[in-house]
Design goal:
mainly alpha; 0% strand; globular; Trigger factor, domain 2; 154 residues
Length: 154
């Protein structure tokens, strides 16, 4: 939960401090993917396509901008996804669902599915790089305070 919180604060900072136009094709591709995920949920069936588009366009714009910023940081700092990173991520998934080991291995034996892992891994490695460079201060709070603070900010 702490990792999620600090990552959200970092992304909020980037979102506030780095504003630029994103390539329209990237925005449309991300928005299309996001909308297909959203439309598959029954609670969104009451909304029109146009309502959903307006609602998720801002989210998609942020996602693309943050993705471009992280990709640029990763490239300029030579942060790469290695075969070992991929193996470790797959192993972690298998450990979380040991009864699905065969299905997981079969799924990631397909190149396009393995490729989908690279983005999230690169994002995590880049966030780790940023946090290593950042001047962070530690504070002590109880788990109840932490949960309360995070519920207020979501």
């Amino acid at each position: 939960m702490a990792r999620f919180h600090i990552k959200k604060e970092l992304f909020d900072l980037f979102d506030r401090d780095y504003t630029f136009e994103v390539p329209q094709k990237m925005l449309e591709a991300d928005l299309g993917q996001l909308l297909s995920e959203v439309k598959s949920k029954p609670e969104n069936n009451a909304k029109s396509d146009e309502e959903l588009r307006r609602e998720y366009e801002k989210i998609s714009n942020r996602r693309v901008r943050l993705g471009l910023l992280l990709a640029d940081l990763a490239q300029s700092n030579e942060i790469l996804v290695t075969e070992d990173d991929l193996r470790q991520t797959i192993a972690a998934q298998i450990m979380q669902m040991p009864n699905k080991q065969k299905e997981i291995i079969e799924y990631y034996s397909q190149a396009e599915n393995l490729k989908r892992l690279e983005g999230p891994i690169l994002e995590e490695k880049t966030v780790d790089f940023i946090l290593e460079k950042a001047n962070l201060s530690k504070i002590k709070i109880s788990s109840e305070e932490f949960i309360k603070k995070n519920l207020m900010h979501t």
